[in-house]
Amino acid sequence: MEPEALSTASAPGRCERRLSGCGIRPTAQRVRIASLLLSAPQHLSAEQILASLRASGARVSKATVYNTLKLFASHGLIRQLSVDGSRAWFDSNVDPHYHFHDLASGALIDVPVPEVEFSRLPPPPPGTEVAGIDLVIRVRKKQ
Amino acid sequence: MEPEALSTASAPGRCERRLSGCGIRPTAQRVRIASLLLSAPQHLSAEQILASLRASGARVSKATVYNTLKLFASHGLIRQLSVDGSRAWFDSNVDPHYHFHDLASGALIDVPVPEVEFSRLPPPPPGTEVAGIDLVIRVRKKQ
DNA sequence: TTCCTTGCAAAACTTTTGCATTAAA
DNA sequence: TTTAATGCAAAAGTTTTGCAAGGAA
Q1: A2 lies in some domain
Q2: Are residues B61 and B86 in the same domain?
Q3: Which end of chain B is less packed: N or C, by CB atoms within 10 Å?
Q4: pLDDT in tens, A73-106
C-alpha cells in the first residue's frame, strides 16, 4: 500500500488508470515512465527519461523506453516534437500549443494557443486538409 | 569550355562566383553540390544529394557532402530544416518562408511569407529576442 | 611549400529490431 | 496458461571525426 500523501496528477495510481483507460496494459515500466513524464508539462528526451528512471532505482531498458514513448504518442498521451534535428523531444502537454526554442540553452518553452493569432493562412494544397500547425519561435540572447 | 546554353541561376560559373563571394573556395565537389542544390527552390536530404551526384558521374564522398552542407548553411547559402526528426532537409530557398508538410508523402512545399499573417505573437522571454519563426503546416489527404 | 580539402573508414549517436526470458491477465 | 511486455544485444540509419593522400594557392 503506497502512501499517496502527495497525490499529484501523475501519482502511480492515476497513471495506471489513465493507461488502462487507453487500453494500454499498465506494466511497472510504463507506469513509471508515465509518472515521470505526466507529472507536469515538460519536454524530455528518451535518454533523459532513461537516465532519470535508472537514477531513481528503476530497472528499465532503453528499448522499453523508446517503445513506450512511441506507444504513448500513438495513443495521444504525449506528443513528439522535431525541434532541432538532433533528437526527438517528448512533450507531456498534448493540448494544442506552440513553442519558444532558446537557441543558446536548447530549452523549450510552451506558448499557449491564445497568445498566437493568425489573421491569414494559406489554403492547403488541393485534396488535403490541415492536420496540425507546428510553430517554433527561435529566440536568442538580446544584443 | 562548357556550353552554357541553358544558363540557369546555378550554372557552374555562377555557383563558383557565389562561393568565392562568400569566402568559400570553389572546389569541384562544392561547385557540383551548389549547382545541384541552388538550381531551383527545393528540399533535399544529404543522402539524396550524394546519390544524385554519383548518378551523374561525380566522385564525392559522404563526408564531403555533409561537411559541405554544413559549410553552406553556416554561410547562409542554404537552410537546414527539422521537419520530421528522421533526417535533416536542406532548403535552397533562404528567403524567409514557411512550409506545408504532406504527412502522406513527406513532401515539403514552400509557403511564401505574405500568405501568412500573425495578428498576435507573444513577447519573447525576458532578455531574448526573436531570431526566426519556423512554421510547418501539416496536411493530410482530405476525407 | 603550405594550407586546405577530400575520401575512406571508423566512430558516435539516436532509434529500431530479434529473440529468449519474464511478467501480466 | 496464454498472451503480451521486457531486457539485452545487435542492427540500422544518420551524422561526425581522424587521418593519410591529394590539390590549390
Answers
A1: no
A2: yes
A3: N
A4: 999 999 999 999 999 999 999 999 999 999 999 9
Question: What's the CA–C1' distance between B141 and C12, in Å?
Answer: 38
Average pLDDT over residues A54-67: 97
Instruction: Provide the domain limits for residue A21.
Output: 11-90
Which chain A residues touch B142 with a CB distance below 8 Å?
127-129
Q: Are residues A19 and A65 in the same domain?
A: yes
Pairwise CA distance, residues A74 & A68, whole Å: 10
pLDDT of B1 over the 80 cut: no
CA distance A2 to A28: 14
Ramachandran area for residue A63 (φ above 0: left; ψ -120 to 50: alpha; else beta)? alpha
Contact by Cβ (8 Å): A69, A29: no
Residue-wise pLDDT tens digits, A46-56: 999 999 999 99
- Are A133 and A74 contained in the same domain? no
Q: Tell whether A135 and A85 lie within a shared domain.
A: no
Query: Same structural domain for residues A125 and A59?
Result: no
Judge: B129–A142 Cβ closer than 8 Å, yes or no: yes
Q: Rounded CA gap, A62 and A44, in Å? A: 14
Closest-CA distance of chain A to residue B82, Å: 5
Structural domain contains residue B105: yes
C-alpha cell at A79: 506528443
The residues of A between 46 and 85 with beta carbon within 7 Å of nucleic strand C are 46-47, 62-63, 66-67, 70
Q: Is A3 on the interface with B (CB under 8 A)?
A: no
Question: What H or E segment, with its residue span, contains residue B79?
Answer: strand B79-81
Q: Do B21 and B55 share a domain, yes or no?
A: yes
A80 touches strand D (CB under 7 A): no
Reported pTM: 0.91
Residue A3 pLDDT more than 50?
no
Q: How far is the CA of B37 from the C1' of C6 (A)?
A: 20
**Residues B84 and B15 occupy one common structural domain:** yes
